[in-house]
Amino acid sequence: MSTASGLVVVDKPGGLTSHDVVARVRRLAGTRKVGHAGTLDPMATGVLVVGVERATRLLGHLLLTEKAYDATVRLGVATTTDDAEGEVTAAAGAAGVDGAAVREVLAGFVGEIDQVPTAVSAIKVDGRRAYERVRAGEEVDLPSRRVTVHELTVHDVRRAGEHGELLDVDLSLRCSSGTYVRAIARDAGAALGVGGHLTALRRTAVGPFTLGQARTLEELADTFSVLPIAEAARASFPAVDLDEAAATHVRHGRALDRELDGLTALFAPDGEFLALYEPRDGVARAAAVFV
C-alpha cells in the first residue's frame, strides 16, 4: 500500500532541528520523500509544515507565503547569534529605557523594511550556509533584503535581570517569508542603543496553516495521518475547477486560455488536484503538474 500524499502540520518542540522533525515523519510515514516548508531554529517551536510524497512539490510554493510568530525579545544584551544561544557581545543593560520608547521603536518595523539577515541564518553564501561559515570562524557579511512586517503588536514590556536592568518584550507579528524575527530583536536593541536578542520564538502560522491544526510528534506517533494533497492545495492557493476538456490539457501541461490572478490550484471535475498554474505571457501556464 502506497503512502498517501499530503501535508502534516507539526507543532515542533524546542531542541529539535527541522531536519530532526523530517526524519521522525519519514519513519512514521514509511517513506523517504518528506520535506518541510521553511526552517525553524532548534530553540523555536510551533508550526512546521511537512510534505509527504507528491505534496513535497507544494513546499517550495508554500515557502513564499506569509508567516506569524509570537516572540520574546530581551533588551540590554546583544549576542553573536541574535538569540539566547549565542555568546554575549555587549551587555549595556536597559535601565534607561521605558516601555513607551520600546513601543515607539518597534512600531517603526511595521511595513516594508530593509533587513540584514542574522549571520547564523540558513542563507547560502558561495554554496555554504551562513551559519556553517560563522561556526567555522569566518566573518559573514550578508546583504540586506526587502521584507514586509504586516503587523506587530507589543503585548507586554517588563523588567528582567537580577537587578531589573534588562527589559523583556512579548510581541506578536505577521510578516512576509524571509523575515528574521531575530534580526528585529537585534535592530530594535541597536535603535535603542542597548542591544537586543531573541529569547523565545513560536511560529503560530504558515499561510493558512495554524497552531490549531498542528499536532505534536507524540500525537502523530499515536495516529499518523496527512491532510490530503487536494485539501492542502485548496487551503493554500486560489482554486479553479475545470471541465474535462480543460483538465485533459492540464494533465499534459498545456497552456490554458484563461485569466488567473496569480498562482492557482486547478482541479478535475471529480475533485482531483491536477496542477498549479500561473499567469504568464497572456495565458495560464503550468508552474507544477501533479499527475
Automatic annotation (TrEMBL):
Gene Ontology MF terms: tRNA pseudouridine(55) synthase activity
Signal peptide from the UniProt entry: none
Presence of the UniProt keyword Nucleus in the record: no
Gene3D superfamilies registered for this protein in UniProt: Pseudouridine synthase, PUA domain
Superkingdom per UniProt: Bacteria
Transmembrane portions of the chain: none
Record EC number: 5.4.99.25
Catalytic activity line of the entry: uridine(55) in tRNA = pseudouridine(55) in tRNA
Domain tRNA pseudouridine synthase II TruB subfamily 2 C-terminal: 237-290
tRNA pseudouridylate synthase B C-terminal domain segment(s): 182-223
Pfam family, one: TruB_N
Start and end residues of each Pseudouridine synthase II N-terminal domain: 26-181
Keywords: Isomerase, tRNA processing
Active site: 41 (nucleophile)
Function of the protein: Responsible for synthesis of pseudouridine from uracil-55 in the psi GC loop of transfer RNAs.
Protein family according to the UniProt entry: Belongs to the pseudouridine synthase TruB family. Type 1 subfamily.
Name this protein carries in UniProt: tRNA pseudouridine synthase B
Organism name: Nocardioides taihuensis
